Every structure is written in structure tokens, then in C-alpha cells.
Amino acid sequence: MAAHSIILTLIAAGIIGAAFGMILAAASVKLRVYVDPRITAINEILPGANCGGCGSPGCSGYAAAVVKEGASPDLCAPGGAELACIVAEIMGQVAQEKERMIAVCHCQGTRARSPDRWTYDGPVTCSTAHSLHGGPKTCIYGCLGYGDCVKACPFNALVPGIDGIPVTIPERCTGCGACVRACPRMLMRMIPDKVGFYLACMNREKAKAAKSVCKVACTACKLCVKKGPEGGNVMVEGANLPEIQYGVITDWPEANEICPQNCYVFRTAEAASAAAS
Amino acid sequence: MAGSMPCTFPGGVHPKDCKEFSREFPIEVAPAPGKVRVPLAQHIGAPAKAVVAKKDEVKKGQVIGEPQGFVSAAIHSPVSGKVVEVKEHPHIFGRPTLCVVIENDGNEEWAEGMGGDPEDVSALEPKEIIDRVAAAGIVGMGGATFPTHVKLSSPKEYPIEIAIINGVECEPFLTSDHRLMLEEPERVLRGAEILRRTVNAKRLVIGIEANKPDAIGKMRDTAKEILPDAEVVELHVKYPQGAEKQLIYALTGREVPAPRAPKFGPYFPMHVGALVQNVGTAAAVYDAVTRRIPLIERIVTVTGTGVESPKNFRAKIGTPIEALLEAAKVRPEANKLILGGPMMGLAQGSPDIPVNKGMSGVLVLTGARPDVSRACIRCGKCVDVCSQAIMPQTLSILAEAERFDLVEGYDIDNCILCGSCSYVCPSKRPIVHLIEWARGALGAIRRKKAEEQKV
């Protein structure tokens, strides 16, 4: 009796399995969704970090956007020029040479230079601190140092330095822009990797007000515009800040000899390796 | 009697009430400020629009800010003098707000038709009363600053059965409502009667926490004389007993549904037939309806371990906090300033903030030090004390992970920001701060969605 029911069960299960198998086989043919093989191909070679730097939701979203919406093949910052070539090849296009960009913090106002006005005692994020009277730091434009950018970086390219001000490790930075979107004060900005210096201040106040909140604040004295390399710096209207024209100059080691506030930061190999270690 | 009267509510905490610092000191008029800085956003709803400009002469009580829309409130000049500027200045909420700065000429000259003797208003139509309340710019003075005329104009399908006057004052340290009930019970009760008549409620109940026996006695005696059918109810001492929904539950046994309960929300106290007004609001309503006096001053308790002589001030709206602190003599070792009570008040980095309509206290503390917040250990204490029956720990964890898409499902809209969860948290987590932050982010997501739907 026992053996009989076992055999019966096996036969019944076998028949049911075969029937459903046939239904599934038919469905897989009939209900097939066509996926462009190029989407799959591009998706496979993308880094898979889902950093969102391209503007699409994740890597698969970008792959679909390239094929279906004709998004540019060179938007993937982590993949760089090499990946752009392959994507362009898959799409039958020719990739354009794109400059490698990295993100750096445009502030060097440590607590010794711009002390705290009061003690902040809330959740340890820049965005919550920033929403309370502009944060504890005297300079309301300066880096708060609670590391929203460090947390946002999918490649561990940012490390907190003195008083939490982030230091970029250039080799790891892919220029995806996740930190740029995370910073509530818009201090993380992109610069070309090839340049050797940048202006590390975003204080938009006029001379006296800027000087009173930070020892290394840009006072908008315009000396860099007047005395620096011709066309290298241009004042931004209404912002009380100069903007370096990286198309004109890429390096200017004497910048801080001109700048009375020592606002310029130079990218040296030692600084980068110190941050990496 | 409709419903039972539990006299308390589920959940809640028992912080030390610390009222002994300031409760013995009678209300005194704050020193006249040389300049007042009146913010145009002192209420829930749209900020008022400035109707005066630099160099304008204004009289005391003159409208300087017109309400923008129905849920908004008018702003009046608390002094007579000259407008110095209309400019953005720091405000209690942490963002600069447009303020009207007026130089006080010290003449205290009332605008036309204001500040006369009280007139008899027993024959006044409810509509006229609501208009007068709206014209006076009255908002909830317990701290929430919801425009009072909006609360009074509940639609016909929700008849108000019970008018509740909130004299609970459950926040530790604060004694402004306590002193008001002791010193001016008549104003409060007459204002309460006007409120009750406006919404045509059968019952008028004044709820006071049991830690103020003198105020309960005084209110009962006065009520016996001028308003025999008003009930003065002694409530259990527990925080947040003075929160609107908790007070309604304590007095009627009715629960106001969640603000975004599925399908039917949002819900307000009127949906359970209740109207709740603070004692300070009731007193302001009395002045506004009988003497046409707008809301230009309020009682502010200046207290805490950081002041030498705690005081209860009657201060003009727009008075700089610095002036009050000077009069109360701040100790040199004081290191924390909170506007409001210690549970729900807003800590400030500088005293450069004016008194506003919802500010019941200025708290100065010594020996405050920042807490080191640690990870949630899932002990569930915050769930036990949450009087709104939500899960603060989950919300705080979601906020930290920036999962603002999930917080709505955990009833973040239910939170009344009472701070009981942060008070009991053994990991010293800033739970309320995280919830408030997540709520702001959720609001931004909702606005974005609504805009997308429009397009």
C-alpha cells in the first residue's frame, strides 16, 4: 500500500510538473519582452557603483538611457574615457575626448581659522547643522566638517581631514559628483584633474565681513584678477569671488604671494599621498 | 456627560517640573524696548506681507503685516514710533525671516478705536467675533501658533460640543500660564466664555495640571462668581498633558484620528467635537473682542539655573531677548539658551532673537554639555512613552539612513514633536531632531510630487 501511494504521488507530481513546464515554455515564447542587446552589453561593462553621477537612476538606468534616449556615451565619470570609447563603439559612435574632473572641497577654514559660534548638539550631519542658523561655524559659507560628502562618496575617495574638512584622494575620485549634490553649502566643486591649484573659499561677503569670520576668507580684493596671469581670474558678478579660468591657466605657484589672505590651495603629490594613507 | 474623563493619556514621561524657579514671581511689565523687531512669520501658515515701509510713522496696534490667505495672521505694531527698516533678520526657527524694525518713541499712542473700555459683547454674532479675532492677529499662544480664527470657523457638519481651555502648562520650568491664571482669572474666563459662545459648545472645561493647586483654586473661585457652568478639571501631572490631542483624550476619552489616516484625513480636533485654546489665547481673545486690542504682547517666563532672578514678564512682541535676559541677570557661567520649554523649546546659538507670539519662555541653563549620541539599541523605551503610538526609533534610524521614502509609512505625520522619546533614550539619540529633519525632507518630496502631477 505504502509503495503504491509513493509511485502514484511521483506520477502525479511528474504530470503536473510537465504540464506547468509546457505552459512556462509557451509563455516564455509568447510573452517575451524584447531587450535591446546593446542595453545588456553596456550594462555589463558599466562599473556598477550606481553613483548616479550620469543623472540616470543607477547603471542599468544609464545603459537604457544611452540606447533608448540617446544619452551621451561619455557621461559615466567612474568609467572615464576608456569606458566611453567602448560604449560609443557599442552604439556605433566615436567617443569624444573628455577632460578628467575631480571634486575638491573649496574651503580651508579649520576651527583655528574660523571658530564655532556655539556648540551644535544634534544629529551629526551637515544638512541638519546647516539648517540651524547656518550651522555653528562663524563663516556661514564654510565647511561644517560633519562629513555628508564623505558618506555620499561611493568610491571612498574622500577622507575627513583637519576638523572634518574633506581631502580628496585624486586616484580614487571618479568625478561622479555624488559629493557635489550632498554638500548643503555647495563647497564640493569639480576642477580638472590636470590643474595644480584652486581658490579654496566660497565666502560671498564683502571684505570686512568676510575677514571677520575667517582668517583665510576671500575678501574680493581683486588682486589676483589685476596682478595675476592675464585673463586667468575673472570676478563673478554679485558673488564677491573670483573664478579661475582653467582654460587659460592650469598652474600658478605664486598665487599666494599675490593673495593677501592665502586663499589658494596647491595640489601637491605629498598632500594627496598623506590623505591616502 | 459625553464620554468618560480619564484625566490623563497613554504614554508620556515624568520630567522634574522645575516650576519653583519662577512660579512665585508676579507678572511684571518688561522694560520698554528702544527698538522692536517684529517678524512677519510668527504663525503656522503663509507669512504676513509688510504694509509699511521705511520711515513710516506707526501707532501702537496699527497693522504692519497683512495676512496672506485664510490660514495666516495679521501682524500689528507693538509700539508707536517710526519704522527703521523692513529686512531679513535671524528668527527662532533658524532661518532669517523678514522683520519690521520699529523705533519706539515711548508715547504708547494707540491706533484709532483701540484700547478703550471693555464693551458688552454678549449680543455679538459669532461671525463678528471671528472677524475681530482675525483682525487682532490672534494665534495659539501655547506655542503652536495656529491662527485662532481658523480654529473657530469650523464647518457646520462638525458641531463643537466641548470647548477646552488649556491651562495645563506641562512643559517643565514655564510658569507664564500659571501666573496668568492666578493674576487674571477673570480675563481668561471671560475670554473662554466668548470662545465657547462663538462655536456654540455645550460644555466649557478648563484643564489644569494638579501641580498648580493655587491656580485650580483661583480659577474655581472665579468661575463660581462669573461663570458657574464652567468646569475646572484637575489633571494628572504628566508630560505632554498639555498637547492638544492628549488633552482632548484626558477630558473626553476621545481620540483625534491620525492627521493622514487612510482615505479620510486630515483630521483635526473639530472632528471629535472639540475646540482647544490656551489660557493665554483666551485672555487675548477677551481683549480683542471687547477692547479691539490686537495681539501685541504676551507673558514670557525667563527662568532656569542660568539666571539670578527668574521673572514672569509681560513683554511686547518684538522685544529683543537680550533685554529680558539683562533684566533677569544672566549668570556668567550660563551656557545654554532655549526659547520655550526644555522639552519642545528651540535651542539658540545667540540671543539676537525677538519675542514672538508663541514664545512662552526663555530658558537659560548652566552646565549643559553636548551629548554623544550612539546607535539605537532597540530597547523600545521611546515606543512605550510615545503618546502618539508611533515608533520613534524606526523613524530615527530611517532618517539617519536618509530613507525619506519610507518614513510616511511609519506615520511620521503623527508625531507632535513632544520630545518624550529623546528624553528617555538611553543612547542619547536626537530622535526628535531626526524626525523633524525627515519630515522636512518628506515635505520637499511631496511638494515635488504635487508639482509633477500638476504638469
Give short descriptive properties of this protein.
heterodimer; A: 277 residues; alpha+beta; 3-methyladenine DNA Glycosylase II, Chain A, domain 3; Alpha-Beta Plaits; 2 domains; two-stranded antiparallel ribbon; 11 helices; 36% helix; B: 455 residues; alpha/beta; Rossmann fold; 17 strands; globular
Overall description:
The complex is a heterodimer of chains A (277) and B (455). The longest helix of chain A is centred in the first third of the chain and has 29 residues, at 2-30. In chain A, the strands form 4 sheets. In chain A, strands 1-4 form a two-stranded antiparallel sheet. A two-stranded antiparallel ribbon of chain A has the order 2-3. A two-stranded antiparallel sheet of chain A has the order 5-8. Chain A has 11 helices and 8 strands. Chain A has 2 domains: 37-90, Electron transport complex subunit B, putative Fe-S cluster (3-methyladenine DNA Glycosylase II, Chain A, domain 3), CATH 1.10.15.40; 101-269, Alpha-Beta Plaits (2-Layer Sandwich), CATH 3.30.70. Chain A has helices at residues 2-30, 37-45, 58-68, 80-90, 126-130, 148-152, 178-182, 207-213, 223-227, 255-258, 269-276; strands spanning 101-105, 158-160, 166-168, 188-192, 197-199, 233-236, 241-244, 264-266. With 455 residues, chain B is an alpha/beta fold. In chain B, helix 3 (176-183) runs parallel beside helix 5 and helix 4 (185-199) packs across helix 7 (279-291). In chain B, 50% of the residues are buried. The A-B interface holds A 117-124, 127-128, 131-134, 136 and B 90, 94-95, 347-350, 370-371, 373, 399-400, 430, 433-434, 437, 440.
Arrangement of strands in the largest sheet of chain B: 1-14-13-17-15-16
What is the number of strand segments of chain A? 8
Which spans of chain A have pLDDT < 50 for at least 5 consecutive residues?
none
Radius of gyration of chain B: 21 Å
How many independent structural domains of chain B? 2
| End-to-end distance of chain A | 74 Å
CATH top level of the largest domain in chain B is: Alpha Beta
CATH topology of the largest domain in chain A: Alpha-Beta Plaits
| Anisotropy-based shape of chain B | globular
Biggest β-sheet of chain A, characterized?
A: 2 strands, antiparallel
Number of domains of chain A: 2
Helix amount of chain A: 25-40%
